[in-house]
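Researcher: Following up on the earlier apo prediction. This time include the ligand. It's 2-acetamido-2-deoxy-beta-D-glucopyranose, with the SMILES given after the sequence.
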Amino acid sequence: MKKIALILIALAFISQIQCQISQVTEDVEQVTISDLKTYNQWRSNNRRVFLNEEEETYRQLIFFENLNQIKTHQNNTEATYTVSLNQFSDYSDEEFKERILNKHIQKSIPDIQEEQEPKGNLRKATNYPTSVDWRNTGALGPVQNQGQCGSCASFGTAGVLESFYFIKYNQQVKFSEQQLLDCAAQAGFDAHGCNGTWQQEYFKYAIKHGIVSGNSYPYVGYQTRCRDITNLPKFFPQSFKFIDRKVSEMKSAISQGPVSVTIDASNWRNYYGGIFNGCSKYPELNHAVIAVGYDAQGNYIIRNSWGAHWGEKGYIRVSANNDCGILRSAIQVLS
Ligand SMILES: *[C@@H]1O[C@H](CO)[C@@H](O)[C@H](O)[C@H]1NC(C)=O
Ligand SMILES: *[C@@H]1O[C@H](CO)[C@@H](O)[C@H](O)[C@H]1NC(C)=O
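Model: Understood. Below is the ligand-bound prediction.
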């Protein structure tokens, strides 16, 4: 709070003195002319429009705080990843959690034992390749963007079903995230629109009701009334299972196809590239994504749904030794 107040005064100061650069840097704490230039450039790149001056000032303050965090990161010699400005740079941490992450699952821990597992159908693959990467194989369509809606689980589910379909039928399809978002709750599943849910709710919904194509039911980024999908063609997955919480089981599953995982993304928002090792030692699951590979060191390759400009073309690599809780709630489609 103190820093915000300081910067506020500083901003007033800057606007008063206009271009007297030499004075500005002095008691402005972190905000410099160069920061202001960075802000203006970022703002025009991200097409930010504000309701009024108060909102603009407020956003600007948050931006400078985030910019400062990004600069400080460069001094963190233990980090094996880089950070940058992006579409989230004028959100506070709280807003990021509130608007982008999966609020529903932050409050609950899944009871994995009681979940359904098909009998007699468990693939016991004990060996797996040293490394796997499903990118550029055709099994993954373009990276998606969930927008300002905690709908990650619908992307995690639809994306994994698309990959499953491609691996099984050698045909690229796009399934509807919006259908899951709109219809699962209405069909009585424990789903909460943009507040999020666990992916298993969407998998269970798709098994029961089928999933339609993204073209026939496009994404709009907020929850709407479930449309009439009676006459639309649907794909009915048959079964899924939770992967045992072991690295070997996870790798084995990923080697068979992309895996739906729930993870701690609290510290991901500035990620730009490299092996992410910035998760808490006590991960709090709050985001659904897709594990699409691992490298020879065991680091995971993850497909996110924050657009292709975020991270490594929409992907993040997560450290084998700081895995953001990736093993805790991972789902494999079986049939
Ligand atoms: C990074 O470290 C250098 C040297 O210790 C220091 O001068 C600089 O202020 C630090 N930068 C940030 C943003 O913390
Ligand atoms: C989402 O959560 C907010 C409170 O955080 C609540 O007011 C709202 O009704 C919830 N929406 C859904 C669809 O669950």
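Model: Confidence is low (pLDDT under 50) at residues 1-28, 111-121.
Researcher: Noted. I'll compare it with the apo version next.
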